[in-house]
Amino acid sequence: MAASVQGADRRSAGTRYAGVPLAVLAGTLVVTLLLDRQESFEPPWLLPLLNGVFLTGIPGLIAYLAVRAYVATGVPSVLAIGTGMVATSVGCGVVPGLLIALAGPNAGVTVHNIGALVAGAALVAAVLAGPTRVPAWNRRLYMVLAAYGVTALGMLLVIALAMASRTPAFLVPGVGMTPLREVVLGTAAAAFAYAGLTWWQVWQRNRDMTFLRWYALALGLFALGLGAVLTQPTTGSPVVWVGRVAQFTSAVYFLLAVREAAPTGPRAARGPGGLGASLIQSALVYRPMVESLAEVLISLNRSGAALYWNAMAERVFGMATVDIVGRPVAELIAAPGRVEAVATAFDEAIAEAHRGTASVREVDVVDARGRPFPAEIVMHAPDGASGVHVCLLRDITERKQAEAAILELNDSLEARVEERTARLEAANLDLETFSYSVSHDLRAPLRAITGFAEILDRRYRSRLDAKGAHYLDQIIDGGAHMSVLINDLLDYSRLGRLLVRREAVALDPILERLREVFSERVAAGGSIEVVVPLASPMADPTLLHEIVANLLDNALTYARPGVPARARISAIRDDGRVTVAVADNGIGIAPEHRDRIFDVFVRLHRADEYPGTGIGLATVRKAARLMGTDVTVESVPGVGSTFSVVLEAAATDGQAL
Ligand code: ADP
Known about the structure:
22 helices; rod-shaped; binds adenosine-5'-diphosphate
């Protein structure tokens, strides 16, 4: 804030008397019109003095300042302006007067007119050179030497040739001005006018760059001055004075422009960046860039007061740049009731930008039409002592909507998954209830079939012939198989209906019972080995019993022909977990079947090879999953298989129970 107020004060002080030169010019015009046109006012000391001050001294000073500004900034326009000032200083100042005295009027007029032409060309070049590339720092001095040197030497050459009367005639004494002089001076005037008009237009687009106004005015007045001289056939006529005063006035405005363009701070004013070189670059290059940006760009000072905002910001927030200067940005843009929050966000972003951390914040703002919208601000801290922060502001309505949609979708997805799961569970329960009741209801008719088949067997077998006896055997076998199948199915479907418990389970009692169940198989040559000690897992005792029973059954069943079946049961504790494993020395399982065998009714063998129902491993898997774990198998065909279930270890070991 302080900087901009200072700048405004300085500007008003600098421009307070800016109208005086114009008033002098107008006064000259009036006096000239009142005077007798034939009477010329030409004291011999006056013109050299004025020319020396205004047309040699001031342009020379500006040329010098331009060197410093160019070396500091490398802006090509500044070099061209300086070059124009060199041509003016050498060609249009004291030199023509001296030449008139030394070598006659033609020499003086020739040098003046050519000087004006060269200056005009350089100042047009300054307009055109705006956006070109900035040369490296160490090459700039050479550029200055080349531009100034060539101009100065060229002008000296013209002076020398004019003195030696080797230049074409610009003025023939007694006759008047030649057409050549009209063309040269006319072109010079046009060049000044063109440059003046162009900068005037640039100023129109960048109203705060007041130095451009003075600069454009200076160029215009110089063009006017040259034009006035052009209309006069002889030197010394009163109207010539109007032209001269216009040129002197122009020099004053050149100086005013230089003063206006000098950087604001005391340190910067001393520095070499004068003449607003960077301002010119900014007007021609950076400003249009910022203004054409489709993003809102705000520059503000450390306390959050606005210094400038671009055209997009004007459009979005409906306030002109000139109206926002010095006002807190938060108050300008915050949505109703959000001023405090927005101010805090800006303060935090500024502080973070100074620390060099990511300074991105979300704020609630309101646009020109009163529509509140969420925005994201990205703050950049100044890299010098300027105190100017740059803030990029982006409308994030769409992103917010997308985020909200995703959240909503997530919620509804979860709800849908829950609903599906519930439906699936219900369907599963239905299926289990159904298979349970079917199996259950099938038992009565099956009992009737097997019961009567047994009676038939006992009482009537002797009366049956061989074929009849065979059919009866088939009925009895089928009935027995069906009975096993129904029992297995009942076991399987009953699992899902249980409430799963979770407790420390000792495996020894389970194995004791199972030894009894399988005692016949052991007597027939099989063996059950228990690896002690048996660790206790946290499990449901019934489910664990089902698992071990089914695995043990298979281990004793799928033996290699001629090799006695050996089942080996272990429960090993490791790192808070217990692996319950049943290993055998049987036929093994080919890798391609290792997943399928856990599905219901999947059997790899015919009933006459190995008896079974295809429900055992499905029961094992279901029991394991009900306890939140799973069953895995490792197997080498022809060597044996190991089925394992990993459970959480119980705090107290099964041994102790
Ligand atoms: P069942 O044993 O009643 O046929 P399971 O579901 O228990 O049904 O087993 C499915 C199939 O997996 C069996 O038919 C058998 O081919 C194979 N299988 C199961 N356990 C073993 C094992 N320990 N060794 C070799 N094959 C096995």
